[in-house]
Every structure is written in C-alpha cells, then in structure tokens.
Design brief:
By secondary structure, the chain is α+β, with helices and mostly antiparallel strands. Helices cover 32% and strands 24% of the residues. One of its GO terms (molecular function) is phosphoribosylformylglycinamidine cyclo-ligase activity.
C-alpha cells in the first residue's frame, strides 16, 4: 500500500500486489517480481481505511514529530494476518513492478501531485484515481533469470503490443544497430488496463504472446489469487453494506456512563432498553401538563466538522430544545437525541454525545435515550446530522404565556445570549466565505482563539437560571429568540393586538454581530430577522415588578430592560427595534481592533502577478492575500493583452495594473526587459505567473531566479 505525502497529509494509492516467484502457481525461485495487479480486491474499503489511518498516517505523523518529516512516496509492504495488516518493510519509492499498475490508474497529472507534495499543499491537490478499472502487468524475463542469462537477443512484436492498446515498459533493453535487444534479467513489462481484473490479465497475456525474444520467461497467472477471491460466492453482510453493528454497540457501551450521570428524580437514565421511562409523581408533579420540543443545530454543524470540534455542538442541541419548552413555563425532564451519519466514527460520536450529556446536566434533565443511525450513502465521509427532543412538564396553573394578563406598558426584559447561538449559520458561512477570513483565522487581542472557535461558542441554556423566575408568577410571557430573530419570535407570545418597541442602545451587542453586519453589508431588518443580536430570551413583566424581576435574573445572567409592550395600530409591525444601526456601529471599532482582529503580518512580500486572460487564478490570489494571515501583498498586475477581465478584477480590488503588449516588441528579450523595468518601478520582490501565456527569456529568468 503506497501513498504520496507532504509530511502532513497522506494520499493513498490503489493497493497493489506483485508476484515474486518465477513460475505459475508461485513455483520456482524468488525474483525481483514477475508481475503485479491493482487494485487488490481482497482489501476492503474498511481495511484500506485502517491501513491509511493506523499505518501510513501514523508513520508520517511520527516522523514529523521526531523532527524528520518525510516527503514523497511512502511504500509500505504489508502482510494480511488474522490479527490485521502487519508491516514487513517500508521503502522510499514507487516499486517495480507495482509502479507499472498503479500510475496508469492515475487520472490527474503526476507532475501536479509531485509539485503539491514538494510545496506542502497535497491536501488541496489530491490525486484522483480511475475507480472502475483494473491494471495487470506481466514481466518478460531472460532465459536463466534470476541466475545467469544471455544478452543482446533481438526483441520483436513491440509495435503489435502497442496496436493492442497496451503499455510496454522497458527495463533490461538497449538499442543495437537500430534494433531493440535484451540487456538484463527482467527485460520488459506489458501492462493492460481494463474494466475488470480477469479481462486485464487476458489482454496483458495477449501482449506478452505478441512479443518475442529467444528463451523468454513469463507467467500467465498474474492476479490468480485475486481472481479466485472474486469468483468465490460470498454472502453479503450488513457490515459489507456499510453498517457496523459492532461499532454501534461499542458506542453504546462508551456513552452509558455519560447518560447515567444525568439521572434525576423521576428516572435513572439507563440506556439499552427499547424505551425510556419517567415517573412524574416521583419528580414531584401533582397536576402536570406535558410539554415537548424538537430541534436541530442547522449548518453550525458544518463549522464544527470543518474545525473538527465536536465537544460543544451537543450543548447547542440541548439548548435549542429546552429553551423552547421554557416558553410554556415547563421544566425539562428528559432528552432524546438522534445522531445520523454515513459511516460511524465512534470517537466523534462519543464526543458529540458527551457534550449532549453534559448539557443535560446543565439543563437539569435526564438523557433518557437516543438513536444512532449509520446510513451509507446518505452523508459524505466525516459529516453527521443531529436532532434533539426534549419533554418537560408544568403544573396546570403555571403555564405560559398568560395572554390575558399582557397589557400596554408592560416591560420587556432581555437576557443576554452567548453569541450567535444556533441560528443564521447559512448566512454566517456565506459571509465568512466572502470575507478575508476563514475559520482558522486568529481573533482576539492575543490571537489565541480562531474565528471558528468564536462561532462555535455554545448556545446558552436558560432552564435552571430562569425557571425559578418563570414560576414566581411575576412573568407574563417568555420568548426564546431562535430562528427568525427578534422580529419573529417575540410576537409568538403576545396577543394579536399588542406589539413591542425595543431600544438597541439599552443592551450590549456582542462584537461578532457587528462584524457580521459590516462584512455582510446586512440591512437592519436582515440583522433583526436572522440573528438574536445579543438577546437570547425575552420576558414580559408588569412595569411595577420589572426592577425586582431584573435583579433576580441578574444574579445568574446579564440582563437589561430593553423595551415595552404597546397597543398595536392596524398595519403596524409587531416588533420595532430602534437604534439598531447606531448600536452596531458603536461596537464596530471594537470589532476591528479587538475581538475580530486577525494577526496582521508585517513586512509583507511585494508580489507582481503576470496574466494573459480572465484572471481566474488571479482572483484566488487576491482573495488569499486579503486574509490577515497572508505574507503576500499584490502590488502590481501585468498583462500582455489589453482589455482582459483579469485587469478589471485587479482594478476592482484597487491593485495597480500595466499592459505590456508583446506584439509591440521585436524579441522576447526586449519584451522581458520592458516587464522587468515595471517590476523594478514597483519594488517587486516576487513574481507570480497566473495563466501568463508567454515564454520568458533566459536573462529574465536568471535575474529573477528563486523569485
């Protein structure tokens, strides 16, 4: 099993097997290899993944950690045993005859892959392989090999093999008087690429039969073990189909203690049964109404998966459900989760469910059960989805909202959010994508937090802190500010004839909202309809009791008096938010200089980009240099053609441009001299050719060597 590696990323090649023995049926003496085939059908996708993770990646990681990073092709010679794959040897090469069956299956340009390895950018330029093809190569050896053998024997039939559409790789050959003759033990290999192994072997054997030299030795059964393996009538299994019941069982055993730690009065939170039980009487309820809620986390999951941060997303799931049922005044009693994936990664799932269990403890509810669904083909590798279900209870006389009590002049109390919570992330991701930042960009004064970390700040859970206040009888309504923002959630707990007027200057808007507003160029309505803008929940209380209720909340949470209830005029908006723009702009300077501030690189390298056309690559370079972590600054764009789109892209980004038309110069050297003069004028330190369709002259290349 071979792979490319740039010292960090590995890119496995299709597994190949060679045949060392000289004769059919693996008889005769050992050789350097009499043929090979690829891919090896005996290696399942699961086993290949195990080899990738446990052998190839671990080896590359270990060498890097020891200070000797390895770049290039890593060749692992493996033996399959009943205890799994074992390493026989490592080599720093492609291997012969493995190379002759692996490289013909490469779809993209080998040179590009090699450059990506050298430049440590393999992750962005991974090799692509023909998946529905098999390759077989057969070695033709000299008579007497691996002992003494004659040389100088004429080889015929090479053109015939080529006509059959086969590749002939020369090893022990040379030219003598215009003829190809033998000059080594293993003379050449004939490679066939077909849709299956059996056909590939037949075609390779046809090629070998067409080529002649005196005493030629070759095998006719290359890949015979693999062909026998493919012919076996094997019954399908659930695991073959992509569902690993054993992995699911392992996960259940790992999360059982996590769930048990959430037990409370009314249940013991033991997993494993068909259903979970809850005793309302044991929980102290006399005349309860059951309240249920369900939710997910949305595309915040995408950020967690990109950042490989799975420990906090569980709190988002729990919070979205338990904060909703608080709107009825309900105490959350128990929680159920649903975890869906294409292939179960026990470690990732355990991390997510550990976060769910920890959040259940914060909410005061039991993790009573759940479902792990492994569904091959439904989700790409590394992706998963979550859903949660909370059930709570409230005594019949304490239900919210109490619509008949709400009156003109009631006060609105806003309780602080921890940030974006779990809504609006499709818009957040689009804003980040179009900005000069990415999720790994450092933010904050010290730069010790990334933008991804900041956006993954978990949603606040309000049940334990707000439930005593809601049960006091002083609160007329509670609204969870979730999807739909301030504009759409507050009306859900008000009578039709009432609305609210809020003043955004009365509460602290977290800087992340100011940054999103500025970077996304969002309207006031878009901000207040999509995001919570710093308010995670609102309570409606009588004016005379407002200060007392506020003090009770402020013992646990940041909270403010943010507005009042008003009688609604016909056709008026249910929610008006005054001063939102002023509040966002008041924090904008903070967002630039403190929290959302990447570490700016000093002494950036001055780059000139040479183009000839649309500037597709130029656009990517401009976006890259806008990132605060970039070491480059594009100071000039030069084109050898006037009026091309690339020049307009540069001008839109405020980058100086020059047109130097090659047709106006008598020689390449004169043209290059004109380019060089402009580069000197702009004190350029590095030249980047991005779709530049001119050959540069020797003197120019020599002057700018390494730059």
């Amino acid at each position: 099993c071979l792979c490319f590696t740039d010292g960090v990323t590995i890119a496995p090649m299709p597994p190949a097997q060679d045949h060392k023995r000289l004769m059919d049926g693996d008889e005769g003496p050992n050789t350097g290899g009499m043929g090979a085939y690829s891919p090896a059908p005996q290696i399942s996708k699961d086993l290949l993944q195990k080899i990738r993770d446990k052998i190839l990646q671990k080896t590359v990681d270990g060498m890097r950690k020891e200070g000797v990073p390895y770049f290039g092709v890593l060749y692992a010679g493996l033996m399959l045993t009943k205890d799994g794959p074992k390493v026989l040897e490592f080599n720093c090469r492609f291997g012969d005859p493995e190379c002759q069956v692996i490289l013909p299956l490469l779809k993209n340009d080998l040179y590009e892959v090699m450059q990506a390895v050298i430049n440590k950018k393999l992750s962005s330029s991974m090799p692509v392989w023909f998946e529905d093809n098999a390759a077989v190569t057969v070695v033709m050896a000299s008579e007497g090999y691996p002992g003494t053998y004659p040389k100088g024997l004429e080889i015929t039939g090479l053109s015939k093999a080529k006509q059959l559409g086969l590749e002939v790789f020369h090893a022990g050959t040379s030219l003598k008087d215009g003829k190809v003759v033998t000059s080594g033990g293993r003379v050449l290999t004939v490679t066939a690429i077909k849709e299956d192994l059996m056909t590939a072997l037949q075609e390779a054997n046809k090629g070998v039969a067409a080529i002649h030299f005196k005493g030629a030795i070759y095998r006719k059964d290359i890949g015979y073990r693999a062909i026998a393996f493919l012919k076996q009538s094997r019954g399908l299994t659930y695991k073959n189909s992509g569902v690993d019941i054993a992995a699911g069982n392992t996960l259940v055993q790992k999360i059982k203690p996590l769930a048990a730690a959430t037990s409370r009065s009314g249940c013991n939170a033991e997993l494993g049964g068909f259903a979970g039980l809850f005793d309302l009487k044991a929980a102290g309820y006399k005349d309860p109404i059951l309240v249920s809620g369900t939710d997910g986390v949305g595309t915040k999951l995408k950020i967690a998966q990109v950042c490989k941060r799975h420990d906090t997303i569980g709190q988002d799931l729990v919070a979205m459900c338990v904060n909703d049922i608080l709107a009825q005044g309900a105490e959350p009693l128990f929680f159920l989760d649903y975890f869906a994936c294409g292939k179960l990664d026990v470690e990732v799932a355990q991390g997510v469910i550990a976060g769910i269990a920890e959040a259940c403890k914060k909410a005061g509810c039991a993790l009573l059960g759940g479902e792990t669904a492994e569904m091959p083909g439904m989700y790409p590798p590394g992706e998963y989805d979550l859903a949660g279900f909370a059930v709570g209870a409230v005594e019949r006389g304490q239900m919210l909202p109490q619509l008949e009590r709400i009156a003109d002049g009631d006060v609105v109390i806003g309780v602080a959010s921890s940030g974006v919570h779990s809504n609006g992330y499709s818009l957040v991701r689009k804003i980040v994508e179009k900005s000069s930042f990415d999720f790994s960009s450092p933010v904050g004064v010290s730069g010790d937090q990334t933008l991804g970390d900041l956006l993954l700040t978990p949603t606040k859970i309000y049940s334990k802190t707000l439930l005593p206040v809601l049960r006091s009888g002083h609160v007329k309504a509670y609204a969870h500010i979730t999807g739909g923002g301030l504009l759409e959630n507050i009306p859900r707990v008000l009578p039709e004839s009432f609305g609210v007027v809020l003043d955004a200057l009365t509460w602290k808007i977290p800087e992340i909202f100011c940054w999103l507003h500025k970077e996304g160029n969002l309207s006031e309505e878009e901000m207040t309809r999509t995001f919570n803008c710093g308010i995670g929940a609102v309570l409606v209380v009588q004016k005379e009791l407002a200060q007392q209720v506020l003090k009770d909340i402020q013992r646990h949470e940041a909270a403010w008096l943010i507005g009042k209830v008003v009688s609604l005029q016909k056709g008026s908006a249910h929610v008006k938010v005054h001063n939102i723009l002023r509040a966002l702009q008041a924090n904008r300077s903070l967002s630039v200089h403190s929290h959302i501030q990447g570490k700016i690189q000093t002494n950036k390298v001055k780059v000139a980009v040479l183009i000839s056309g649309t500037g597709t690559n130029l656009e990517a370079l401009i976006n890259s240099t806008k990132k605060p972590t970039s070491f480059a600054q594009i100071v000039l764009v030069v084109s050898n053609k006037a009026g091309v789109e690339g020049l307009r892209k540069a001008e839109r980004s405020g980058i100086p441009t020059r047109v130097i038309d090659h047709k106006l110069y008598e020689s390449r050297t004169e043209f290059d001299s004109a380019v060089d003069k402009v580069l000197e004028e702009f004190s350029v330190q590095l030249i980047c050719l991005a779709g530049f369709m001119r050959i540069l002259s020797g003197p120019f290349v020599k002057k700018w060597e390494g730059k």
